[in-house]
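Sharing a chain and its predicted structure for anyone who wants a worked example. Both blocks are below, sequence first, tokens second.
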Amino acid sequence: MMADLEQPQDNDSQHVAELRLALRQARFENNLLREANSHLVQATVTAQTLQDEAEAANQRQNEFLAMLAHELRNPLAPISMAAAMLERMPHLSPELVALRSVISRQTEHMARLLDDLLDAARISSGRITLDAAPVALADVIERAVETVQPRVTERGQRLDVRVTAPELTLNGDRVRLTQVFSNLLANASKYTQDGGHLVLEAGAGPAGVQVTVSDNGTGIAADVLPHIFDLFTQGPRSLARSEGGLGVGLNVVRNLVHMHGGTVQAHSGGPGCGSIFTVEMPAGGPMPAAEPASATVSHEACRVLLIEDNVDVCDTLKGFLMLDAHDVTAAYDGIAGLALAQQGGFDVLICDIGLPGHDGLEVIRRLRAGGSRLFAIALSGYSQAQDREGALAAGFDAYLVKPVRPDSLLAMIDSQECRARRATGC
């Protein structure tokens, strides 16, 4: 009888023990869940912190590269302008002509290196946009060849250009497409010996348009070939010639080609066997009807106000413009330049952006606020799109990046827009 009465108590004790065990298990699992959740929160915070730090580092890098380009372009500007002035001087000795050519070529080479470096940084951060429109394939190839021809000639190389379908078009950015093919040609020249042979062929291809650039140069090793388009990858350097470059030109090529919906591939039989680069792109639509050519207008001398705080840049640019028969007044800071501009009597304003006193943006804002319609050209060492847009929004009519191409500056001063502004009064 006693055993029967004690049995329910034993069952109850066992049930309580099981509940206590289940409770302890639930508490343990809850603690594990809480700990896991804490780790997840910590990991999320850490990931966000790392992302913020990476974005900040990328921003600092872009700002540093922009500042570097600005600082390096400032000394390039007077060197480039001095070379242009030498070209216009009469009775130069053959030695001076040769020296002028060397200075001009090397200045342009340094400017292109800076552009490639900045483009690589901007592309990686998604800050390049394309101004797309139908462009003639033959026109893009012609511009690219014109860019690299002086270097090819300097090295005694032979460049054969074969455009088999000149009617083909590309839908893209004319400037960026020219950059693609000029970079490929420059790369071929760089890694081909003096007296070597380069070939550019352009025509119809499987994707619509195909362009190949081949050479009989140093070739590409098998272990380098898969990485040839990666940033800072360089081909072989010889001890006799320092031709490694920065290793960014082909990276820019690949990214720009991809932005145009195309592909680029590299082929080589190995060291000493030359290389072939093949670009495939979709063909573009028909070209818009060309506007009738305007009648040739004779050159007009202008009254130019030049505001530039770098004395070497200012003086060489002033001297160059005066060689072209323009009447030039110079100021070395924004306050003095603004005072001269407000007095009137000028046809064209050429103004640096980074000025002491009033910067160039403040100068043009005050002039426009006062009703001035003076044709204004901004000069700057900064080449990013937002810098250009900011200058145009402030009131400048045009924006040129240092070192300024002399022919581009003269053409701008003599442009129809500038002429029309002068005709209506500034």
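Comments welcome. Residues 2-88 form the longest helix (87 residues).
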